Amino acid sequence: MTDIPPRIGLRPSGPRDAITDVVGVTVGHCTLAEGAIQTGVTVIRPHPGDLYHDRVPAAAAVLNGFGKSIGLMQLEELGLIETPIALTNTFGVPAVAAAQIRAALAVNPGIGRELPTVNPLVFECNDGHLNDMARMVVGEAHYRQAHESADVTVAEGAVGAGRGMSCFGVKGGIGTASRQVEAGGRAVTIGTLVLANFGRPSQLRIGGRALGPILAERLEAHQTVAKPEKGSIILIAATDAPLDARQLRRLALRAGAGLARTGSVFGHGSGDIALAFSTAYTLPQDPGTPMPAVAMLHDAHLDPLFEAVADGIEQAIVHALWRAETVTGRNGHTRPALTAILPDWAALPSPVMP
């Protein structure tokens, strides 16, 4: 299999083909990979400053609510985020949320006293096939390491929160991409990042090609048994376009189009959550600071962004599959890399789906 992943769509990507092509956004990982422990934390920072004081507009769309994330209620009510976005395994959510609160307190000791409380924002997927989640090893130090390592260069595959994740019966994990469009007379960047842990092998489509049946057949030959889908995917979209929370929710919802193109049907046990945020302006925590007067992009100009986020999410999932290596973890469970199972994917006689 070529090391170059298939290209999704016709729109150009940014220089990194990553969420960090949106200026100010950085990503960091902490990876735990030893024996039965195959997990980690990934942190997305919308800007390098204090997010508690300078919050960014955001919105989420819950495509399938089988998940244990934290922070969605206030996000829905206020349309903003005030901590970095953290990704981890299901049982790591409480520890990572506590770490986010402590990190905010360290910079702003008045939080919860003379200042408002802080809303931690943590998303999760179940990596229990490869990782012994019941040992609950993820802690504050791992969040700090991921946060402090945040950079514009984004490692992909079996790293950070993606270390123990599975996708279509093979190794999944972290993937990222970007697309550049023109909307309303301005240049706009859409960056995407996924924590991919979903899908049955038979469902897989790559660039519209139905590779799932062949993948399922080869996995069975490798004695890898497909189980009912109970994984999840977290879909993150960032943009420098000036959008409000209502528009960002519309953008988040279109991430589901990119997910569906890969063959997902948002299975019963899969928690599929999308979040979109804008870096075009910030919203002050201090009530004495005037709210910004921002001219939002007109709704009539949103279609190029919708197309870009669908392409970017599909591309990010492809990147996660292509860049993840084979991992063996709990009880000897193994998830092979897609590149090991379908090295000849481009030559396979699979139909192109409409």
UniProtKB/TrEMBL annotation:
Alphabetized Gene3D superfamilies for the sequence: L-amino peptidase D-ALA esterase/amidase (3.60.70.12)
Pfam families for this protein: Peptidase_S58 (PF03576)
InterPro entries membership: ArgJ-like_dom_sf (IPR016117), Peptidase_S58_DmpA (IPR005321)
Keyword entries, A-Z: Aminopeptidase, Hydrolase, Protease
Molecular functions (GO terms): aminopeptidase activity
Keyword Hydrolase carried by entry: yes
Transmembrane domains' residue ranges: none
Family, per entry: Belongs to the peptidase S58 family.
Name of the molecule in the record: D-aminopeptidase
